[in-house]
Amino acid sequence: xxxxxxxxxxxxxxxxxxxxxxxxxxxxxxxxxxxxxxxxxxxxxxxxxxxxxxxxxxxxxxxxxxxxxxxxxxxxxxxxxxxxxxxxxxxxxxxxxxxxxxxxxxxxxxxxxxxxxxxxxxxxxxxxxxxxxxxxxxxxxxxxxxxxxxxxxxxxxxxxxxxxxxxxxxxxxxxxxxxxxxxxxxxxxxxxxxxxxxxxxxxxxxxxxxxxxxxxxxxxxxxxxxxxxxxxxxxxxxxxxxxxxxxxxxxxxxxxxxxxxxxxxxxxxxxxxxxxxxxxxxxxxxxxxxxxxxxxxxxxxxxxxxxxxxxxxxxxxxxxxxxxxxxxxxxxxxxxxxxxxxxxxxxxxxxxxxxxxxxxxxxxxxxxxxxxxxxxxxxxxxxxxxxxxxxxxxxxxxxxxxxxxxxxxxxxxxxxxxxxxxxxxxxxxxxxxxxxxxxxxxxxxxxxxxxxxxxxxxxxxxxxxxxxxxxxxxxxxxxxxxxxxxxxx
Length: 489
Fold this sequence. Notes:
Blueprint: H1 15-25, E1 29-31, E2 38-40, H2 42-61, E3 65-66, E4 72-74, H3 75-78, H4 82-88, E5 93-98, E6 101-109, H5 114-124, E7 133-142, E8 156-166, H6 169-190, E9 195-199, E10 211-218, E11 224-234, H7 236-240, E12 244-246, E13 252-254, E14 256-263, H8 265-273, E15 275-276, E16 279-280, E17 291-295, H9 302-316, E18 320-321, E19 324-325, E20 328-330, H10 338-347, E21 352-356, H11 358-363, E22 365-370, E23 376-382, E24 387-388, H12 390-413, E25 416-418, H13 422-430, E26 435-440, H14 444-454, E27 457-464, E28 481-486
Parallel strand pairs: 3-7, 17-20, 17-21, 25-26
Antiparallel strand pairs: 1-2, 4-6, 5-6, 7-8, 8-14, 9-10, 10-11, 11-14, 12-13, 15-16, 18-19, 21-22, 22-23, 23-24, 26-28, 27-28
Helix pairs in contact: 2-6
């Protein structure tokens, strides 16, 4: 039995308390003095930096370039797009005093950046030759949430927000779906998460958008977590901010725009989808430390073991796995037991542990232990020759990445339930079993009634119902759509 370095609640007993314990005792983050805000600790921020690195690489591959817009937005600008401001008004934080004096015009603390970006684009875009304009920024935003939780919902949060302007409607629609695919691939391939991708319902779409598409993850308690959104904005913001261009037919037209974003809540989803009773399990691609070296110390071999561990860390740091330099750490602390260290690094989710004790020294090897299966494999080294079995280590890391992905996908698929009656619908979403796949008449009234009775909302639309062949799970009227429904964070 592994003795935990810092006692945490069992995941299998209480997911909510386990989640909090992993974040606090795993030193990912802590509560800030301001209600609803969090402080990233070094390890937690390192996870976010890995998210940024991996996702930014994918975003840049679409042609978008990084920019930065101001945090503060004049009230007059925010009010220009009526649907947008109505949707965000309850969450906006305002600056009313600056330099000790009352401001002539209130400044909104950025809840999102469509309005400031639209204002600038109206200055910069003049011709079809200026299009498409593809921009992305990594920034912080503030939304005055009532109920908060680290990573999942905070007053201030970190994210990326992409904004694009296009010559035609089809180009903008294509961009919206392109980014949805980028987000899906990022979540599945890099974070080993399982998600559903699709369009949101009218009532769940972004304020001011024509269509919103999203990736939705299912958490172990059966609730949904929206992990990324991609919005087709049509010409709503272009008309509000007068963003026009002269086309090649010599006519002046409004641009077509999109916006899209992933916030640090995807880190919360990552934490909840991957873990066990001993803590977090991180996919190797996003893990700040992919391999931790833990020396097993005995008095007669202590000095040699510590020296070898330090040299191995330097050697491993020169290696490449999964297309990048290996991220390795040697835990050379001498006052804690190996069992304590094992537990500590398991809590933090490090994918592979490399143990080195007297027997390993004698054989010029380390014993590699995987975090998810705790399978063991000896890996040879030769310090004099500067060699190490990187192929074997990479194979172990790939195995962890793939098993986590397969486990998450199997869990998701096992918790999608096709229902035909409202009684069955309510039981599925109310008991935490998972998502209900149900036919829907497509009306706002029915969606609202279902939400009031079960707290469930449309997570994503699956497809259009065959006319006349399905009945709405709630109203009994002919169904127009089939959707995945669930309670959410």
